[in-house]
Amino acid sequence: MIPNLPQSKSVPSNLATGRRHRVSISGSGSYQSHLSSLGHLHRVRTTSEQISLGPVDESDNDYYLHVLEGGLVEQRPRVGRLSLLKQFITDPATFLSDDLRRMRSGHVWRPHVLVTLYSCLCILFLTIKIHTFVWNAHQTTRPQHDPSWQPILNLAETDIWHSASFLNITLSQRLSVAFRGLPAQAHLETFVVQAHPGSGYKSDLTACLWIEDARIEEALLSATAWPGPVSLVIVTPHTPNSAAYKTLLDYLTAKHASTNLSVHVLHVSSVAGGSSNAYINMARFFARTSRVVLFPDGIPRSARSSHNTHWLDKLSVDTPHPVLLSNTTSKAFSPRLLAPVVLPRDHPVWCTERCYMFGSRLLDWEDCLWRLWLESAGEASSIAVPHLWNGFKNATSPLVSPFAIKIRLRWSAKYRSEACAFTLKRSQAFESLSKTEKRHMQWRKKFCRETVGPGALDMP
């Protein structure tokens, strides 16, 4: 049994009154008292430092009791929140260890300091993000500070072609937005040769095509005979700083005498392994009229003859849908090999650049026409141009091997199946469809089953 001990004079009077405190106080000399509360056992001994503290009035908010290591207590002045925040920033180790001792001794922790610090960090992070966003927006809207920037066209406002949105971004940004299939090391020289604006064209239809650098003579010959503008992309493996590349540019600027030809030179590491559809998309992208005709393998000789260009008169000027130049007039999908297509330059569908590893103009172009037909939902058509087929080649550059052909055809089938499934999902996303939209959806289902197979609409 614990005897009744006299009150020690070394303990402050406000701690010996019997009122509840967050710390426990011991007696003096060889006596020890133990206080157990809520599972916590505290041992506090008195020292000469405590004797010097004197009584502390609990109503005084300028001081508080601080627990030291070993159960000692001392009187400390209270500090403001800014001072605590300053202490945390200047000496975080001491600040955190101090709080941990307070928590072990039953004192209330100071969460408001960490909340304030967390708020400051959030404000700092948000400020950095806003600054980065504003800086990027500023760089995009002020491309003239970029030494590599050059305008797409140097045309007057009265010219037939103008695109302010693309004039305000750099060339590298245009490439990344428009041609995602191009490799990072690709280099494009736009308008190495530029058509003269205001020329008296017989047709407002821009011929878009691409060739390898070994076929320059043929392309220039076909361009001079075309009745309208020509957008030509020349693909070369020569690096921009090489002598062969400079010779190519000099040849184009020196030999070119046509007023309707615009030439763009693209450097790639391998011409054979590139995307044919990406190159023809590029030629379409830089076209200068509202309507274009895409030639996947160059302009045939029959189309260059002046007496065979009467087929241009058959084209409707206001049609917003693709028109295939075939050997029959029909709305069924039965295109000839490498058949050209006429469409608006700003048509929402562009040739797919997905299957590009084998460098086949023929197979790439078939996928392009198939996607145009799918998205048109039965509105696309074809017109008969018999004389146009006399100049087409029967064969293009072959693929590597029959095994590569087999893989390429599997890729094409996979691409078409996914395109059909995606089209069906897109139609089902709408809560209500109009009669026209329902008719288009039914036509696409039928088209996918006929051209791909019964399982074309299966969800992947």
From TrEMBL:
Key words of the record: Membrane, Transmembrane, Transmembrane helix
Keyword Membrane: yes
Domain of life of the native organism: Eukaryota
Comp. bias intervals (Polar residues): 1-16
Region (Disordered): 1-31
Phylogenetic classification of the source organism: Eukaryota, Fungi, Dikarya, Basidiomycota, Agaricomycotina
Listed name of the protein: Uncharacterized protein
Ranges that cross the membrane: 112-135
